[in-house]
Amino acid sequence: MEEEDVKLNEKQVQYKLESKENKKTFNWAEFLACVSVASTNLHTGFALGYSAIIIPQLEKFTDELGELSKSEISWIASSISIAAPFGCLFITFALDKFGRIATFKLSLWPCFIGWMLIALAFNTNIIIVGRLLTGFAMAVGTNSANVYMAEISSPKLRGSMMSIGSVMLSFGILLMYCTGIYLHWRVVAWIAFIGAILPVFMTAFWTPESPLWLIYKERDDMALKSLKYFKNIKYGANVQESFDEIKKIKEKNDLSINKAIENRNVFRRMAWHLSQPTVFKPLIILSILFILQQFTGIYTFQFHAINMLKEVVKGVNLKFATFLFGLLRFILSFVATGMLHTYGRRPLCMISGIIMAITLLISGLCFHLKAIGNENILTTWIPLLCMLLYISAGSVGLMLIPWILPSEMFPTKVKGLFIGPIMGWSNFVMFLAVHFYGDLKDLLDGMLGILWFYSLISILSVLFVWMFIPETHIMKLSEIEDYFKDNTIYFLRKKNPKKSQPLSI
User: Where are its TM segments located (predicted)?
Assistant: First the structure.
């Protein structure tokens, strides 16, 4: 009995120590580093929201650049998406070769040049070139930032930290909408240029290189220094423990890697890694998920917001509606940050998709009723409410979470190789969805067909997430990798990974 009491007391003491450990001071080093790199999403928000305000201005005031053709409108809206895959291919080589932070800083230069070209443009071709450069910068900056944040954040806080970028992005879109309603598009471009300078100052102070990348590159001294910066404020003596754990994972991975293949060119290395279930499973799953995400219309709406609102919410003040959408998305980005800290990826995606499908379906019904002459106060204001709910649901689920998943689902040793291609694919699909929006609308016989098509894809997204997307919330990156060794369909998974302690990266 005495021995049992001693053991019970030991467990109680250990529990108290662990509880005390988990209630330590907030890790400001980790937070400031994430905020610093996430600030590049301001530029992403500028780029996404800018086409929604420049196109109506150029269509209305034709004395400066002349009348726009349908092709020019499509290219101004979608050119950032066609440039983004090239940025993603660039990080395939750069992330591993130069490091996460060095690659991030390289993205800032085409961003500055692009916005300057747009502000000074004397024809639409210059605007398109500027949009191409900002699209390239957007892809390199946001993806290198996501990889960096996934690697430096503790498992419990990883979702919240990575969703900081969504707050920045939403503020960027809101700023574009608000300024674009009242200011000339050239002035708005200069505002975006100034805003893009912010990451330069922030990353100069609070962003040491990723300790994971440094360890995998066998720069142990620098890795220990980086870990101490991130961990000593919160975990004190466990810095060495975290370092040793990462080293063990690396050594285990090294044993499974064919050294002859690793010394060959990047394409042969990619081909070899694609034979591993921990690589090809997340690659296939994410490729399909991004197709479904883009054809729910959630990003097409960002590019064509004003023109889409003209059709869907006729009778409502357009400036008021545009401001309301931007403001709501910004507020909900804060909500998403808190929800990602508390709830899993799967329920947020599925609830998001269900709400999006229902609101699009109701908007379509109201649009149909107005088209046949049944116009009243309900058919005027219900579509606005539904579109607000549509954006709200997307902002905390299908719009946000798929961008986080690649940095969690790919093994650390291949992130540099495969983050680029999968993000390139996602941006290429975005280009197709945005560029051919007008053609798809004609094919589906107008806005009614578009709304119901997006509703159908939202439901398919829910089913796909339910079947194939694993729950990565509060899982160590190594545990996520182990999941794909044995599982593909989530509800048929062979085992449940153990809950991780938030002491290790």
Answer: 31-55, 75-95, 102-122, 161-182, 188-207, 278-300, 320-341, 348-369, 381-405, 417-438, 450-469
C-alpha span between 386 and 392 (Å, rounded):
10
Looking at residue 498, its pLDDT comes to 47
SS3 352: helix
402 in Cβ contact with 468 (< 8 Å): no
Tell me the Cα Rg of the chain. 24
The SS3 assignment for 99 reads coil
Measured over the CA atoms of residue 490, residue 495, residue 497 and residue 499, the dihedral's sign is positive
Q: What are phi and psi of 93, to 5 degrees?
A: -90, -40
Q: Supply the pTM of this predicted model.
A: 0.73
> Quick check: 250 pLDDT over 80?
no
The whole-number average pLDDT for the span 440-468 is 93
Print the SS3 string covering 328-351.
HHHHHHHHHHHHHHHCCHHHHHHH
Over residues 336-352, the pLDDT tens digits come to 777 877 788 899 999 99
Comparing CA positions, the residue from 415, 427, 409, 419 lying closest to residue 487 is 409
**Full DSSP string of 181-225:** HHS-HHHHHHHHHHHTTHHHHHHHHH-PPPHHHHHHTT-HHHHHH
Query: Is 424 in contact with 89 (CB distance < 8 Å)?
Result: yes
Longest dimension (CA), the chain: 92
Whether the Cβ atoms of residue 308 and residue 441 lie closer than 8 Å to each other: no
Integer angstrom CA distances of residue 276 from 256, 267, 280, 372, 490 = 10, 15, 6, 56, 18
Rounded Cα distance, 18 and 431, in Å: 48
Residue with tokens 């269900």: 354
User: Is the distance from CB of 289 to CB of 465 less than 8 angstroms?
Assistant: yes
Residues in contact with 56: Cβ distance below 8 Å, sequence separation at least 6, in sequence order: 306, 307
Q: Which of 45, 44, 26, 32 is nearest to 204 (CA)?
A: 32
Indicate the DSSP class of residue 466: H
Token pair listed for 155: 């498992």
Distance in Å from the first CA to the final CA of the chain: 40
Nearest to 469 by CA among 329, 357, 353: 353
Helix, strand, coil % in the chain, rounded to nearest 5: 80, 0, 20
CA angle 154, 160, 165 (to 5 degrees): 115
Angle, vertex CA 190, rays to CA 189 and CA 193, nearest 5: 90
Cβ proximity of 321 and 330 under 8 Å: no
Contact between residue 328 and residue 392 where contact means Cβ atoms under 8 Å apart: yes
Q: How far apart, in whole angstroms, are the C-alpha atoms of residue 1 and residue 95?
A: 58
pLDDT of residue 303: 79
**CA-to-CA distance for 154 and 27, rounded, in angstroms?**
10
DSSP state at residue 500: P
